Automatic annotation (TrEMBL), chain A:
Pfam families: Acetone_carb_G. This is Acetone carboxylase gamma subunit. It comes from the Bacteria. It comes from Roseiflexus castenholzii (strain DSM 13941 / HLO8). InterPro entries: Aceto_COase_bsu/gsu (IPR016750).
UniProtKB/TrEMBL annotation, chain B:
It comes from Roseiflexus castenholzii (strain DSM 13941 / HLO8). PANTHER family: 5-OXOPROLINASE RELATED, HYPOTHETICAL 5-OXOPROLINASE (EUROFUNG)-RELATED. GO terms for cellular component: cytosol. This is Hydantoinase B/oxoprolinase. InterPro entries: Hydantoinase_B (IPR003692), Oxoprolinase-like (IPR045079). The lineage of its organism: Bacteria, Bacillati, Chloroflexota, Chloroflexia, Chloroflexales. One of its GO terms (biological process) is glutathione metabolic process.
Length: 173, 737
């Protein structure tokens, strides 16, 4: 950890941006992580976090909401809001399920499952399959679904972005 | 705060001569009208004297923890003593929890339901509620998860007025069902679940009724353990009563009354504030599934029960603009003829124990959080059966997978806000659950439930691997217990207990590891054993590209030559490790039974038969190809990972040096990972193409029977979910399965 933790200032917890950068990069040791869990939450985390992430993506679109290590809701230069991966692939309007624009590989045979699990230790084909959602540009595995055959693709998270910005953060989207 | 005077009732035991029922009705009316507990607008006690308020809370909460820590030493059951399967809580006269101890917080609201059930059924008039009374409940349709969790509930009086309730719960070893153990598999009706106490008065004047004590001597196997567990609960409740009386003597009854109202409203507001502080408004969908493999029990179970079943838990969490928190199982499959149905009170238990470990992990949690949450438990589903005579003896089998999406849904929110330290990729199923019974090693009828399952691996975090062998979703203070303690109760020796390779879900960060135990039936001619856990499906999945932890299997070796091996000091199996290369095949002769029937009826074993229990690990998080290659090599050297999976799963090329240690080939690893990324793109197809292929399968209804039946049940029970399914696949409005 290179950052300086400043706690309990004016009854609020704050961390400097380098601490948040270390958190994002996985450089905090467990005692520091544990202290962050036990302390009151720092209300300015979101802005520092976004600033750190913005520095680490290879494109200039404004990050509005991170959806995971490689996925972000961003505002493009033309004002449209889309889901975009770190590689730069765009999955379309943020209100649509990004998985529908990804590539998919399904593990539904014993041979494909046994690349990950010993025999007897994986799901039984027919009962369940593993669906791998893959970034079309760089092959990053973005999400795995474990569902029975025929199950509709899961729209894991539909954020109410406008409410979050206007009512919770108190600013325009 | 205004405490209204009841003008319609008199001579009640509640405040100011009111009946408890009128107090409960008023509480519910005020909440319905205002959205605030008891209609409270201002937390005047907290605002005017916050230090006193905090001290009051700390003293009461300390009383709960003290009761738990002291009382557990009365029990002789390793489930209570070793694992800490007990919890105590304090309630308002209406049955709303004020504060609770550590332990299995599952039961904070289940006991609330039981108290309210007694009030609604006018226990005040008959059988009467008096100072010194003891009520006992283990009926999940009243307020519990299943009947292995036995509750004692004691009224607390002050100067002739009922001012609250003390309650405690322990998980017992045996429930007196036709089949042995605390959570037998095989009951399909309530009548087979065992000894059932439906909020029954079992004591008065601080003594258990003699008729109840005598009944217990034959109602369960091992009545010695049953009675000591009961003494544990009663002792804890008496300590709570004393703690409350002490506070009232020092602070005054009016302050106490005001405090208990305010602290619940405070808990409700804190929950809402926490939701707004940590999450993102929106809708989170995280379905999960569980298989029941009773298809192999034809002839032992009735036809409606002897079938394979797939449970559907389409969990959604909806967070509203004002911090509303709605949990829905819309589309859940039907209740069934098995032992895993979960009435609403059981569902509350599952939700409580989870939220207290993630969203509200503090000592201030109470029923205020309950009042801040809305639940949709579809009537007729496994999560709210419309048949009160169905079995619930192991409701956890559906509860555990059913709620696995809660951690993952909230983790998606935490990632959005940047609170990465809170992110975790779900939790594992807390199994294999090993249970059994039969003549024990003392020559007595025995029954047992092994709780080493409360030390499974946790799932991966956003920035680090999960922890090994340490946790259960239903007991935040999980412990596996000493093998010697289990061997006192169970006529099975431990041949080994060790880390199980590949028991975690792979990912950039892997789940925590599970472990395996090999047991040998010993000093008894026969013993029935149960296995329990998912087998044909994974429990949940990982996050952000991480994979789920393994799915289980069942394995025994019967008619063994272990007696000869012991007599001649020959090698015997001390690990299973890898089903494709098992010591349970190489180092013992006998009949190997290995299959995916991970839920089954009692399976007879004889002395010297071997039984394998594999305890689950946690799910992974992130892309496996981003895992630090050095971490993969470390897992190889420490026995966490079977060597063939370094390359096939992680793309890590390693070799063994002269000393037998694994070393990384960094260059070859880089090349292999680049190739695996290319393969992913080459072997995958655009999702819309895949959907077109899959639609044909759906139209043809090309599913195995448990999957077909699951879809049929969900669509029949929920027009909403049916419309979702048809819409996704572009099916006609009248399409059905």
């Amino acid at each position: 950890m290179t950052g300086h933790c400043k706690l309990w200032s004016n009854a609020m917890t704050h961390y400097d941006i380098s601490t948040i950068a270390d958190l994002v990069d996985g450089r905090l040791e467990w005692p520091q992580l544990k202290a962050m869990m036990s302390n009151f939450k720092d209300p300015d985390r979101f802005d520092k976090y976004i600033a750190v992430l913005q520095e680490r993506v290879p494109w200039d679109d404004q990050i509005l909401l991170p959806l995971g290590p490689h996925l972000f809701i961003v505002r493009k230069a033309d004002g449209s809001i889309v889901t975009k991966s770190r590689s730069g692939y765009e999955f379309g309007d943020y209100r649509q399920n990004w998985k529908l624009k990804a590539r998919i590989r399904v593990r539904d045979t014993e041979a494909s499952l046994q690349e990950l699990y010993p025999a007897m230790m994986h799901c039984t084909p027919g009962w369940m399959e593993l669906r791998e959602y893959i970034d079309p540009l760089d092959g990053t595995l973005l999400e795995v679904e474990a569902v029975p055959p025929g199950y509709p693709i899961v729209h894991s998270f539909q954020p109410d972005l406008e409410t979050f910005y206007r009512e919770w953060l108190g600013r325009e989207l | 705060m205004t405490i209204m005077t009841d003008t319609t009732a008199s001579a009640g035991i509640g405040w100011n001569g009111r009946t408890l029922r009128s107090m409960l009705e008023e509480s519910e009316r005020l909440f319905a009208e205002t959205g605030r507990y008891y209609g409270i607008e201002r937390l005047t006690l907290k605002e005017e004297d916050p230090i006193r308020y905090e001290k009051l809370f700390s003293r009461l909460r300390g009383g709960m923890v003290n009761a738990r820590e002291t009382a557990l030493n009365i029990s002789a059951s390793p489930i209570v003593r070793e694992i800490g399967e007990l919890c105590f809580a304090l309630y308002t006269p209406e049955g709303d929890s004020i504060t609770l101890s550590t332990g299995i917080m599952v039961h904070v609201h289940t006991m609330s339901d039981a108290i309210k059930w007694m009030i609604r059924n006018n226990y005040e008039e008959n059988p009467g509620i008096e100072d010194g009374d003891i009520f006992c409940n283990n009926d999940a349709f009243i307020g519990d998860v299943h009947n292995a969790d036995v509750q004692d509930i004691l009224p607390i009086f002050w100067e002739g007025e009922l001012i609250g309730w003390a309650a405690g719960v322990t998980h017992v070893i045996d429930v007196g069902a036709p089949l042995p153990s605390g959570m037998p598999m095989g009951p399909i009706h309530r009548y087979e679940d065992g000894f059932m106490l439906s909020a029954q008065k079992v004591g008065s004047k601080n003594r258990l009724h003699r008729d109840y004590v005598l009944r217990c001597q034959t109602a369960v196997r091992l009545p010695f353990y049953w009675m000591l567990d009961q003494q544990t609960r009663i002792a804890g409740c008496q300590m709570i009563k004393e703690a409350v009386h002490r506070v009232i003597r020092e602070e005054g009854i009016e302050t106490y009354k005001r405090f208990i109202r305010e602290v619940i409203e405070d808990g409700r507001r804190s929950f809402v504030q926490r939701v707004r502080e940590l999450t993102i408004p929106g809708t989170y969908s995280v379905p999960s599934f569980m298989d029941v493999t009773f298809g192999g029990e034809a002839g032992r179970l009735s036809p409606e029960a002897a079938k394979d079943t797939l449970m559907h838990a389409p969990l959604t969490v909806e967070i509203g603009s004002k911090g509303e928190f709605k949990v829905s199982f819309e589309g859940a499959s039907k209740w069934g003829y098995h032992s895993f149905n979960a009435p609403p009170s059981a569902m509350q238990g599952g939700l409580w124990v989870l939220l207290t470990q993630t969203l509200v992990p503090n000592d201030k949690v109470n029923d205020g959080a309950y009042f801040a949450i809305q639940n949709n438990l579809p009537y007729g589903s496994w999560a709210n059966p419309d048949n009160k005579f169905c079995s619930v003896s192991i409701a956890w089998v559906y509860l555990i997978p059913g709620y696995s999406g809660i951690f993952r849904a909230l983790s998606m929110a935490y990632v959005g806000r940047g609170y990465l330290e809170e992110v975790i990729a779900g939790y594992p199923g807390t199994w294999n659950m090993t249970q059994g019974g039969g003549p024990n090693h003392y020559g007595q009828p025995g029954a047992w439930t092994n709780f080493e399952m409360s030390s499974c691996g946790t799932s991966a975090r956003y920035v680090m691997d999960g922890e090994d062998t340490c946790a259960a979703m239903w007991n935040p203070e999980g412990d596996m217990g000493d093998v010697e303690a289990w061997e006192i109760l169970e006529p099975l020796l431990y041949l080994s207990r060790r880390i199980r390779p590949n028991s975690f879900g792979p990912g950039k960060f892997r789940g925590g590891s599970g472990f395996e135990s090999i047991r040998m039936v010993y000093n008894t001619p026969t013993q029935v054993l149960y296995n329990l856990g998912e087998g044909n499906v994974f429990l949940g999945t990982g996050l952000f590209g991480g994979y789920p932890a393994f799915a289980g299997y069942r394995q025994s070796v019967k008619h063994t030559d272990m007696a000869r091996r012991i007599a001649h000091q020959l090698p015997y199996p001390i690990s299973d490790e890898d089903p494709e290369n098992s010591q349970m095949v190489a180092h013992v002769e006998g009949v190997l039974e290995r299959d995916k029937r991970t839920i089954h009826l009692p399976d007879p074993h004889a002395e010297y038969d071997l039984y394998l229990s594999v305890l689950r690990g946690g799910n992974g998080l992130g892309d496996v190809l981003e895992r630090d290659p050095a971490a993969v090599v470390r897992d190889l050297n420490e026995g966490y990972l079977l060597p063939r999976f370094a390359a096939s799963t992680y793309g890590v090329v390693a070799f063994q040096n002269a000393a037998g240690e694994w070393e990384l080939d960094a260059e070859a690893t880089e090349e292999r990972r680049a190739a695996m990324r290319r393969e992913r793109i080459e072997q995958s197809i655009p999702v819309d193409e895949w959907m077109a292929q899959q639609r044909t399968r759906v139209v043809q209804k090309n599913f195995i029977e448990p999957v077909r039946q699951m879809y049929q049940e969900s669509m029949s029970l929920s027009p909403t979910w049916a419309a979702h399914f048809r819409s996704f696949w572009g099916l006609d409005d009248d399409w059905s399965l």
